[in-house]
Specification:
The structure holds 2 protein chains of 2 kinds. Chain A is of the alpha/beta class. Chain A has 2 domains: 4-241, Thiolase/Chalcone synthase (Peroxisomal Thiolase, Chain A, domain 1, 3-Layer(aba) Sandwich), CATH 3.40.47.10; 253-400, Peroxisomal Thiolase, Chain A, domain 1 (3-Layer(aba) Sandwich). In chain A, 34% of the residues lie in helices and 19% in strands. Chain A has a 10-stranded mixed sheet with strand order 5-4-6-7-1-8-14-13-9-10, with helices on both faces. In chain A, a hairpin with a 3-residue loop joins strand 13 and strand 14. Chain B starts with a helix and ends with a helix. The chains are: A alpha/beta, B mainly alpha.
Chain lengths: 403, 92
Protein backbone atom coordinates (compact mmCIF):
# COMPACT_ATOMS: atom_id res chain seq x y z
CA UNK A 1 0.00 0.00 0.00
CA UNK A 2 1.44 3.39 -1.00
CA UNK A 3 2.09 6.02 1.65
CA UNK A 4 0.59 9.48 1.15
CA UNK A 5 1.93 12.90 2.10
CA UNK A 6 0.78 16.51 1.89
CA UNK A 7 2.95 18.64 -0.40
CA UNK A 8 0.78 21.69 -1.11
CA UNK A 9 -1.54 23.94 0.89
CA UNK A 10 -4.08 26.61 0.05
CA UNK A 11 -6.88 28.26 2.02
CA UNK A 12 -9.15 31.27 2.29
CA UNK A 13 -11.39 32.06 5.27
CA UNK A 14 -12.37 34.86 7.60
CA UNK A 15 -8.97 34.35 9.28
CA UNK A 16 -7.06 35.28 6.14
CA UNK A 17 -6.93 35.02 2.37
CA UNK A 18 -4.00 32.60 2.27
CA UNK A 19 -2.34 29.97 4.49
CA UNK A 20 0.30 32.36 5.89
CA UNK A 21 -2.38 34.82 7.06
CA UNK A 22 -4.49 32.01 8.51
CA UNK A 23 -1.47 30.55 10.37
CA UNK A 24 -0.84 33.99 11.91
CA UNK A 25 -4.47 34.37 13.00
CA UNK A 26 -4.51 30.86 14.51
CA UNK A 27 -1.31 31.60 16.46
CA UNK A 28 -2.73 34.89 17.74
CA UNK A 29 -6.07 33.33 18.64
CA UNK A 30 -7.74 35.99 16.52
CA UNK A 31 -11.52 35.80 16.09
CA UNK A 32 -12.74 35.97 12.47
CA UNK A 33 -16.39 36.00 13.52
CA UNK A 34 -18.31 39.27 13.32
CA UNK A 35 -21.51 40.89 12.02
CA UNK A 36 -22.92 39.30 8.84
CA UNK A 37 -23.37 41.66 5.91
CA UNK A 38 -25.38 40.60 2.86
CA UNK A 39 -28.76 41.24 1.23
CA UNK A 40 -31.59 40.93 3.81
CA UNK A 41 -29.21 39.98 6.65
CA UNK A 42 -31.12 42.47 8.84
CA UNK A 43 -34.06 40.02 8.76
CA UNK A 44 -32.03 37.26 10.38
CA UNK A 45 -32.22 36.53 14.09
CA UNK A 46 -28.63 35.23 13.91
CA UNK A 47 -26.48 38.19 12.92
CA UNK A 48 -22.94 36.81 13.25
CA UNK A 49 -20.66 34.58 11.19
CA UNK A 50 -17.14 34.04 9.95
CA UNK A 51 -17.63 36.02 6.76
CA UNK A 52 -14.76 37.02 4.47
CA UNK A 53 -15.39 40.77 4.43
CA UNK A 54 -14.05 42.94 1.61
CA UNK A 55 -13.99 39.87 -0.64
CA UNK A 56 -13.68 41.09 -4.24
CA UNK A 57 -14.15 38.40 -6.89
CA UNK A 58 -12.76 40.75 -9.56
CA UNK A 59 -9.40 40.55 -7.80
CA UNK A 60 -9.21 36.87 -8.76
CA UNK A 61 -11.52 36.33 -11.73
CA UNK A 62 -12.62 37.88 -15.04
CA UNK A 63 -16.20 39.07 -15.48
CA UNK A 64 -16.99 35.99 -17.58
CA UNK A 65 -15.60 33.68 -14.89
CA UNK A 66 -17.53 35.41 -12.13
CA UNK A 67 -20.74 34.89 -14.13
CA UNK A 68 -20.00 31.14 -14.18
CA UNK A 69 -18.56 30.55 -10.68
CA UNK A 70 -20.69 30.46 -7.55
CA UNK A 71 -18.85 31.73 -4.48
CA UNK A 72 -18.11 28.18 -3.26
CA UNK A 73 -16.38 27.51 -6.60
CA UNK A 74 -14.49 30.81 -6.39
CA UNK A 75 -13.19 29.93 -2.91
CA UNK A 76 -12.16 26.46 -4.10
CA UNK A 77 -10.30 27.89 -7.11
CA UNK A 78 -8.50 30.47 -4.96
CA UNK A 79 -7.34 27.78 -2.49
CA UNK A 80 -6.46 25.35 -5.31
CA UNK A 81 -4.31 27.97 -7.02
CA UNK A 82 -2.29 28.45 -3.82
CA UNK A 83 -1.97 24.69 -3.25
CA UNK A 84 -0.86 23.93 -6.79
CA UNK A 85 1.63 26.78 -7.02
CA UNK A 86 3.10 25.90 -3.60
CA UNK A 87 3.60 22.19 -4.38
CA UNK A 88 5.64 22.78 -7.54
CA UNK A 89 4.00 20.00 -9.57
CA UNK A 90 3.54 20.60 -13.25
CA UNK A 91 0.51 18.86 -14.70
CA UNK A 92 1.33 17.79 -18.27
CA UNK A 93 0.04 15.34 -20.89
CA UNK A 94 2.25 12.62 -19.39
CA UNK A 95 0.91 12.76 -15.81
CA UNK A 96 -2.58 14.27 -16.18
CA UNK A 97 -4.38 10.93 -15.71
CA UNK A 98 -2.55 10.47 -12.40
CA UNK A 99 -4.08 13.64 -10.95
CA UNK A 100 -7.50 13.50 -9.27
CA UNK A 101 -9.75 16.20 -7.83
CA UNK A 102 -11.89 15.17 -4.86
CA UNK A 103 -13.66 17.95 -2.98
CA UNK A 104 -16.27 18.26 -0.27
CA UNK A 105 -19.16 20.70 0.01
CA UNK A 106 -22.57 20.52 1.67
CA UNK A 107 -24.46 23.45 0.17
CA UNK A 108 -22.70 23.68 -3.19
CA UNK A 109 -24.01 26.67 -5.14
CA UNK A 110 -26.42 27.77 -2.46
CA UNK A 111 -25.74 31.46 -3.15
CA UNK A 112 -26.80 30.95 -6.76
CA UNK A 113 -30.00 29.19 -5.67
CA UNK A 114 -30.74 31.91 -3.13
CA UNK A 115 -30.21 34.77 -5.61
CA UNK A 116 -32.29 33.17 -8.35
CA UNK A 117 -35.17 31.98 -6.19
CA UNK A 118 -35.37 35.60 -5.06
CA UNK A 119 -35.61 36.67 -8.71
CA UNK A 120 -38.44 34.31 -9.64
CA UNK A 121 -40.42 34.13 -6.38
CA UNK A 122 -39.95 37.53 -4.77
CA UNK A 123 -39.40 39.69 -7.84
CA UNK A 124 -41.73 37.64 -10.06
CA UNK A 125 -39.32 37.35 -12.97
CA UNK A 126 -40.01 34.64 -15.53
CA UNK A 127 -36.74 34.72 -17.39
CA UNK A 128 -33.70 33.29 -15.61
CA UNK A 129 -29.98 33.54 -16.25
CA UNK A 130 -28.80 30.65 -18.47
CA UNK A 131 -25.88 29.54 -16.26
CA UNK A 132 -27.76 28.79 -13.03
CA UNK A 133 -27.53 25.00 -13.29
CA UNK A 134 -23.78 24.71 -14.04
CA UNK A 135 -23.21 27.29 -11.29
CA UNK A 136 -25.22 25.66 -8.52
CA UNK A 137 -24.32 22.00 -9.01
CA UNK A 138 -22.31 20.51 -6.13
CA UNK A 139 -19.56 19.26 -8.43
CA UNK A 140 -19.00 22.68 -10.04
CA UNK A 141 -15.97 23.48 -7.86
CA UNK A 142 -14.29 20.11 -8.48
CA UNK A 143 -14.97 20.35 -12.23
CA UNK A 144 -13.59 23.89 -12.52
CA UNK A 145 -10.43 22.90 -10.63
CA UNK A 146 -10.06 19.94 -13.01
CA UNK A 147 -10.64 22.16 -16.07
CA UNK A 148 -8.31 24.93 -14.92
CA UNK A 149 -5.38 22.62 -14.13
CA UNK A 150 -6.09 19.93 -16.74
CA UNK A 151 -6.40 17.19 -14.11
CA UNK A 152 -7.93 14.21 -15.92
CA UNK A 153 -7.97 11.51 -13.25
CA UNK A 154 -10.97 10.74 -10.99
CA UNK A 155 -12.93 13.90 -10.20
CA UNK A 156 -15.96 14.05 -7.92
CA UNK A 157 -17.61 15.81 -5.00
CA UNK A 158 -18.74 14.38 -1.70
CA UNK A 159 -21.68 15.92 0.15
CA UNK A 160 -22.04 14.47 3.63
CA UNK A 161 -22.89 17.66 5.57
CA UNK A 162 -20.18 18.53 8.12
CA UNK A 163 -18.06 15.49 7.21
CA UNK A 164 -17.92 16.25 3.46
CA UNK A 165 -14.29 17.42 3.40
CA UNK A 166 -12.96 14.66 5.62
CA UNK A 167 -14.82 12.08 3.56
CA UNK A 168 -13.37 13.66 0.38
CA UNK A 169 -9.80 13.68 1.70
CA UNK A 170 -10.26 10.09 2.91
CA UNK A 171 -11.20 9.02 -0.62
CA UNK A 172 -8.21 10.91 -2.04
CA UNK A 173 -5.97 9.08 0.44
CA UNK A 174 -7.36 5.69 -0.51
CA UNK A 175 -7.08 6.29 -4.27
CA UNK A 176 -3.38 7.11 -3.90
CA UNK A 177 -2.77 4.26 -1.45
CA UNK A 178 -4.27 1.82 -3.90
CA UNK A 179 -2.19 3.19 -6.78
CA UNK A 180 -5.06 4.52 -8.90
CA UNK A 181 -3.53 8.02 -8.91
CA UNK A 182 -0.33 9.65 -7.69
CA UNK A 183 -1.62 13.13 -6.90
CA UNK A 184 -4.93 14.43 -5.55
CA UNK A 185 -6.14 18.00 -5.32
CA UNK A 186 -8.43 17.57 -2.32
CA UNK A 187 -10.21 19.44 0.46
CA UNK A 188 -13.46 21.37 0.45
CA UNK A 189 -15.30 24.67 0.25
CA UNK A 190 -18.52 26.24 1.48
CA UNK A 191 -20.41 29.51 1.14
CA UNK A 192 -23.65 29.28 3.07
CA UNK A 193 -23.56 32.86 4.30
CA UNK A 194 -26.59 34.18 2.45
CA UNK A 195 -30.12 34.96 3.60
CA UNK A 196 -31.67 31.58 2.73
CA UNK A 197 -28.63 29.68 3.95
CA UNK A 198 -28.66 31.12 7.46
CA UNK A 199 -32.47 31.38 7.68
CA UNK A 200 -32.75 27.61 7.23
CA UNK A 201 -30.25 26.99 10.04
CA UNK A 202 -32.10 29.39 12.35
CA UNK A 203 -34.99 26.96 12.26
CA UNK A 204 -32.99 24.35 14.15
CA UNK A 205 -32.34 26.82 17.00
CA UNK A 206 -28.80 25.59 17.55
CA UNK A 207 -27.03 28.78 16.43
CA UNK A 208 -25.41 31.20 18.85
CA UNK A 209 -26.28 34.88 18.56
CA UNK A 210 -23.16 35.94 20.50
CA UNK A 211 -20.06 33.83 19.81
CA UNK A 212 -18.79 30.32 19.27
CA UNK A 213 -17.59 28.99 22.66
CA UNK A 214 -16.75 25.29 22.27
CA UNK A 215 -16.37 23.21 25.45
CA UNK A 216 -17.20 26.24 27.65
CA UNK A 217 -20.04 25.74 30.14
CA UNK A 218 -21.63 28.97 28.82
CA UNK A 219 -21.68 27.74 25.18
CA UNK A 220 -24.96 28.31 23.38
CA UNK A 221 -24.53 27.06 19.85
CA UNK A 222 -22.61 27.04 16.61
CA UNK A 223 -21.63 29.93 14.35
CA UNK A 224 -21.19 29.53 10.62
CA UNK A 225 -18.20 30.48 8.51
CA UNK A 226 -17.23 30.42 4.83
CA UNK A 227 -14.16 29.65 2.75
CA UNK A 228 -12.13 26.76 1.43
CA UNK A 229 -8.99 24.76 2.04
CA UNK A 230 -7.32 22.60 -0.59
CA UNK A 231 -4.31 20.30 -0.27
CA UNK A 232 -2.06 18.38 -2.59
CA UNK A 233 -1.98 14.74 -1.48
CA UNK A 234 0.91 12.92 -3.13
CA UNK A 235 2.35 9.43 -3.13
CA UNK A 236 5.39 9.48 -0.81
CA UNK A 237 8.00 8.13 -3.25
CA UNK A 238 6.76 10.48 -5.99
CA UNK A 239 7.15 13.42 -3.61
CA UNK A 240 10.61 12.30 -2.43
CA UNK A 241 11.79 11.71 -5.98
CA UNK A 242 11.09 15.30 -6.99
CA UNK A 243 12.43 16.69 -3.70
CA UNK A 244 9.09 18.16 -2.61
CA UNK A 245 8.50 19.94 0.69
CA UNK A 246 6.46 17.54 2.81
CA UNK A 247 4.12 19.06 5.40
CA UNK A 248 2.82 15.83 6.93
CA UNK A 249 1.96 12.24 6.20
CA UNK A 250 -1.72 11.38 5.89
CA UNK A 251 -1.33 8.31 8.05
CA UNK A 252 -4.87 7.09 8.50
CA UNK A 253 -8.57 7.59 7.93
CA UNK A 254 -11.74 6.02 9.19
CA UNK A 255 -15.46 6.57 8.80
CA UNK A 256 -18.53 5.26 10.55
CA UNK A 257 -22.25 5.81 10.72
CA UNK A 258 -24.23 6.14 13.96
CA UNK A 259 -27.32 4.61 12.33
CA UNK A 260 -29.27 6.27 15.14
CA UNK A 261 -30.55 9.82 14.74
CA UNK A 262 -30.64 12.40 11.94
CA UNK A 263 -29.25 15.24 14.11
CA UNK A 264 -28.20 13.95 17.55
CA UNK A 265 -24.60 12.73 17.82
CA UNK A 266 -23.53 9.39 19.25
CA UNK A 267 -20.55 8.74 21.51
CA UNK A 268 -20.26 5.20 20.25
CA UNK A 269 -20.27 6.17 16.53
CA UNK A 270 -17.69 8.92 17.05
CA UNK A 271 -15.47 6.62 19.13
CA UNK A 272 -15.55 3.94 16.43
CA UNK A 273 -14.30 6.43 13.81
CA UNK A 274 -11.54 7.71 16.14
CA UNK A 275 -10.41 4.17 16.99
CA UNK A 276 -10.61 3.23 13.32
CA UNK A 277 -8.32 6.11 12.32
CA UNK A 278 -5.76 5.06 14.96
CA UNK A 279 -5.86 1.46 13.74
CA UNK A 280 -5.58 2.49 10.09
CA UNK A 281 -2.56 4.68 10.91
CA UNK A 282 -1.05 1.88 13.06
CA UNK A 283 -0.92 4.22 16.06
CA UNK A 284 -1.47 3.55 19.74
CA UNK A 285 -3.83 5.87 21.61
CA UNK A 286 -0.82 7.12 23.63
CA UNK A 287 0.85 8.42 20.44
CA UNK A 288 -1.75 11.18 19.98
CA UNK A 289 -1.10 14.49 21.71
CA UNK A 290 -3.26 16.88 19.67
CA UNK A 291 -6.80 16.54 18.33
CA UNK A 292 -8.48 19.20 16.25
CA UNK A 293 -12.01 18.63 17.53
CA UNK A 294 -15.26 18.88 15.66
CA UNK A 295 -16.15 21.16 18.61
CA UNK A 296 -19.14 22.99 17.16
CA UNK A 297 -20.08 24.81 20.38
CA UNK A 298 -23.46 23.10 20.66
CA UNK A 299 -24.34 21.49 23.99
CA UNK A 300 -24.80 18.06 22.41
CA UNK A 301 -21.75 17.86 20.13
CA UNK A 302 -19.12 18.99 22.61
CA UNK A 303 -20.36 16.78 25.43
CA UNK A 304 -20.62 13.74 23.17
CA UNK A 305 -17.25 14.37 21.51
CA UNK A 306 -15.51 14.60 24.89
CA UNK A 307 -17.22 11.38 26.02
CA UNK A 308 -16.02 9.66 22.83
CA UNK A 309 -12.46 10.87 23.47
CA UNK A 310 -12.56 9.60 27.09
CA UNK A 311 -13.98 6.31 25.85
CA UNK A 312 -11.22 5.86 23.25
CA UNK A 313 -8.17 7.18 25.08
CA UNK A 314 -9.09 6.29 28.68
CA UNK A 315 -6.64 7.93 31.12
CA UNK A 316 -4.44 9.25 28.29
CA UNK A 317 -7.30 11.63 27.35
CA UNK A 318 -6.15 14.08 30.02
CA UNK A 319 -2.71 14.33 28.35
CA UNK A 320 -4.15 15.25 24.93
CA UNK A 321 -4.53 18.85 23.79
CA UNK A 322 -7.92 19.26 22.13
CA UNK A 323 -8.87 22.51 20.44
CA UNK A 324 -11.81 23.69 18.38
CA UNK A 325 -10.67 26.32 15.90
CA UNK A 326 -14.33 26.83 14.92
CA UNK A 327 -14.26 29.33 17.79
CA UNK A 328 -12.18 31.53 15.42
CA UNK A 329 -13.25 30.72 11.83
CA UNK A 330 -16.77 29.43 12.45
CA UNK A 331 -18.25 26.22 11.09
CA UNK A 332 -17.56 25.81 7.38
CA UNK A 333 -20.03 22.87 7.19
CA UNK A 334 -18.90 20.91 4.10
CA UNK A 335 -15.54 22.71 4.05
CA UNK A 336 -14.83 22.51 7.74
CA UNK A 337 -12.64 19.39 7.89
CA UNK A 338 -10.40 20.89 5.22
CA UNK A 339 -9.89 24.22 6.98
CA UNK A 340 -9.31 22.39 10.28
CA UNK A 341 -6.56 20.29 8.69
CA UNK A 342 -4.68 23.59 8.22
CA UNK A 343 -4.55 23.82 12.04
CA UNK A 344 -3.18 20.27 12.27
CA UNK A 345 -0.48 21.15 9.73
CA UNK A 346 0.41 24.27 11.74
CA UNK A 347 0.73 22.13 14.89
CA UNK A 348 2.97 19.54 13.18
CA UNK A 349 5.18 22.00 11.29
CA UNK A 350 5.55 24.88 13.72
CA UNK A 351 4.91 23.12 17.05
CA UNK A 352 2.14 25.59 17.87
CA UNK A 353 -1.28 24.39 19.02
CA UNK A 354 -4.05 26.77 17.97
CA UNK A 355 -6.39 27.57 20.87
CA UNK A 356 -10.09 27.25 21.60
CA UNK A 357 -10.97 30.93 22.05
CA UNK A 358 -13.93 32.49 23.94
CA UNK A 359 -13.40 29.93 26.70
CA UNK A 360 -14.68 31.28 30.01
CA UNK A 361 -15.77 28.51 32.34
CA UNK A 362 -15.07 24.81 32.80
CA UNK A 363 -17.81 22.35 31.94
CA UNK A 364 -17.58 19.07 33.91
CA UNK A 365 -18.94 17.29 30.81
CA UNK A 366 -16.01 18.61 28.74
CA UNK A 367 -13.25 18.15 31.27
CA UNK A 368 -10.27 17.96 28.90
CA UNK A 369 -7.30 20.20 28.03
CA UNK A 370 -9.02 22.38 25.43
CA UNK A 371 -6.05 24.78 25.00
CA UNK A 372 -8.16 27.68 26.27
CA UNK A 373 -7.83 31.11 24.64
CA UNK A 374 -4.07 31.18 23.98
CA UNK A 375 -2.02 29.16 21.49
CA UNK A 376 0.52 26.84 23.07
CA UNK A 377 4.07 25.92 22.08
CA UNK A 378 4.23 22.15 21.99
CA UNK A 379 5.67 19.68 19.52
CA UNK A 380 3.22 17.34 17.81
CA UNK A 381 4.13 14.08 16.07
CA UNK A 382 0.66 12.64 15.54
CA UNK A 383 -2.69 14.38 15.35
CA UNK A 384 -6.31 13.61 14.59
CA UNK A 385 -8.93 15.78 12.91
CA UNK A 386 -12.52 14.94 13.79
CA UNK A 387 -15.66 15.58 11.74
CA UNK A 388 -19.07 14.39 12.91
CA UNK A 389 -21.95 15.26 10.58
CA UNK A 390 -25.72 15.53 10.79
CA UNK A 391 -27.08 12.23 9.67
CA UNK A 392 -24.69 10.48 12.06
CA UNK A 393 -21.74 10.37 9.65
CA UNK A 394 -18.31 10.37 11.28
CA UNK A 395 -14.98 10.81 9.47
CA UNK A 396 -11.60 11.09 11.20
CA UNK A 397 -8.18 11.73 9.64
CA UNK A 398 -4.80 10.99 11.25
CA UNK A 399 -1.70 13.02 10.35
CA UNK A 400 1.89 12.17 11.19
CA UNK A 401 5.01 14.29 11.25
CA UNK A 402 7.46 12.81 8.76
CA UNK A 403 10.85 12.38 10.43
CA UNK B 1 -35.53 52.15 -33.56
CA UNK B 2 -33.45 50.18 -36.09
CA UNK B 3 -30.31 51.96 -35.07
CA UNK B 4 -30.88 51.38 -31.37
CA UNK B 5 -31.48 47.65 -31.81
CA UNK B 6 -28.22 47.26 -33.68
CA UNK B 7 -26.29 49.37 -31.20
CA UNK B 8 -27.64 47.45 -28.20
CA UNK B 9 -26.95 44.06 -29.78
CA UNK B 10 -23.39 45.04 -30.68
CA UNK B 11 -22.88 46.24 -27.13
CA UNK B 12 -24.12 42.88 -25.74
CA UNK B 13 -21.91 40.92 -28.16
CA UNK B 14 -18.89 43.08 -27.39
CA UNK B 15 -19.33 42.57 -23.67
CA UNK B 16 -19.56 38.80 -24.06
CA UNK B 17 -16.62 38.56 -26.46
CA UNK B 18 -14.47 41.02 -24.48
CA UNK B 19 -14.13 43.20 -27.59
CA UNK B 20 -14.67 46.87 -28.24
CA UNK B 21 -18.00 47.59 -30.04
CA UNK B 22 -16.09 49.23 -32.88
CA UNK B 23 -14.31 45.94 -33.61
CA UNK B 24 -17.65 44.32 -34.44
CA UNK B 25 -19.10 44.80 -37.93
CA UNK B 26 -22.43 43.74 -39.43
CA UNK B 27 -20.72 40.79 -41.11
CA UNK B 28 -18.97 39.47 -38.01
CA UNK B 29 -19.95 35.93 -37.07
CA UNK B 30 -20.15 34.57 -33.53
CA UNK B 31 -17.25 32.23 -34.34
CA UNK B 32 -15.04 35.08 -35.47
CA UNK B 33 -15.74 36.85 -32.17
CA UNK B 34 -14.74 33.73 -30.21
CA UNK B 35 -18.21 33.17 -28.73
CA UNK B 36 -18.91 29.56 -27.75
CA UNK B 37 -22.21 27.79 -27.09
CA UNK B 38 -22.35 28.84 -23.43
CA UNK B 39 -21.60 32.43 -24.48
CA UNK B 40 -24.42 32.22 -27.03
CA UNK B 41 -27.08 31.33 -24.44
CA UNK B 42 -25.86 34.22 -22.32
CA UNK B 43 -26.25 36.52 -25.32
CA UNK B 44 -29.77 35.26 -26.05
CA UNK B 45 -30.65 35.91 -22.39
CA UNK B 46 -29.18 39.43 -22.48
CA UNK B 47 -31.05 40.31 -25.69
CA UNK B 48 -34.32 39.01 -24.23
CA UNK B 49 -33.74 41.10 -21.11
CA UNK B 50 -32.80 44.24 -23.07
CA UNK B 51 -35.88 44.23 -25.33
CA UNK B 52 -38.26 42.24 -23.13
CA UNK B 53 -38.91 39.71 -25.87
CA UNK B 54 -38.84 35.92 -26.14
CA UNK B 55 -36.43 34.49 -28.68
CA UNK B 56 -37.24 31.08 -30.22
CA UNK B 57 -33.82 29.57 -29.60
CA UNK B 58 -32.94 26.01 -28.67
CA UNK B 59 -29.39 25.24 -27.61
CA UNK B 60 -29.81 21.60 -28.69
CA UNK B 61 -29.77 22.69 -32.31
CA UNK B 62 -28.89 26.36 -32.70
CA UNK B 63 -28.92 26.26 -36.52
CA UNK B 64 -32.40 24.79 -36.86
CA UNK B 65 -34.47 27.79 -35.82
CA UNK B 66 -36.16 30.80 -37.26
CA UNK B 67 -33.70 32.86 -35.25
CA UNK B 68 -30.75 33.26 -37.63
CA UNK B 69 -27.47 33.63 -35.75
CA UNK B 70 -25.07 33.47 -38.71
CA UNK B 71 -23.98 37.11 -38.45
CA UNK B 72 -24.54 40.34 -36.51
CA UNK B 73 -26.75 41.54 -39.34
CA UNK B 74 -28.95 38.44 -39.26
CA UNK B 75 -29.32 38.64 -35.48
CA UNK B 76 -30.33 42.32 -35.68
CA UNK B 77 -32.88 41.53 -38.40
CA UNK B 78 -34.35 38.63 -36.43
CA UNK B 79 -34.62 40.70 -33.25
CA UNK B 80 -36.29 43.57 -35.13
CA UNK B 81 -38.88 41.14 -36.53
CA UNK B 82 -39.65 39.77 -33.07
CA UNK B 83 -39.98 43.30 -31.66
CA UNK B 84 -42.26 44.22 -34.57
CA UNK B 85 -44.49 41.18 -34.08
CA UNK B 86 -44.90 41.72 -30.37
CA UNK B 87 -45.69 45.43 -30.96
CA UNK B 88 -48.45 44.45 -33.41
CA UNK B 89 -49.78 41.86 -30.99
CA UNK B 90 -49.92 44.47 -28.26
CA UNK B 91 -51.97 46.83 -30.51
CA UNK B 92 -54.54 44.11 -31.18
Amino acid sequence: MNRVVITGLGAISSLGINVEEIFESLKEGRCGIGPLKFLNSERLSVQIGGQIHNYKPEKYFSKQETALYDKFTQFALIAAQQAISSCGIEITESNTSDVGVILGTAGGGLQTQDENYREVYELGKNRVHPLIVPKLMNNAAASHVSIKYNARGPCFTIASACSSSNHAMGQALNLIRKGDIKIAITGGSESMLCFGGIKAWEGLRIMSKESCRPFCSTRDGMVQGEGAAIFIFEELEHAKHRGATIFAEVAGFSMSSDAMDIVNPSKEGAARAITGALTDAKLNPEDINYINAHGTGTIANDKTECAAIWHTFKDHAKNIMISSTKSMHGHLIGGTGALELVSCILAINESIIPPTINYKQRDPDCDLDVVPNVARDHSVDFTLSNSFAFGGLNAVLALKKLA
Amino acid sequence: MARNVKKTIIKILAEQALLSPKDISENSSLDSMGIDSLGLVEIVFSIEEAFNITIPFNSNDPQNTSFDISSVESIVKAVEQIIDKSAKRNKV
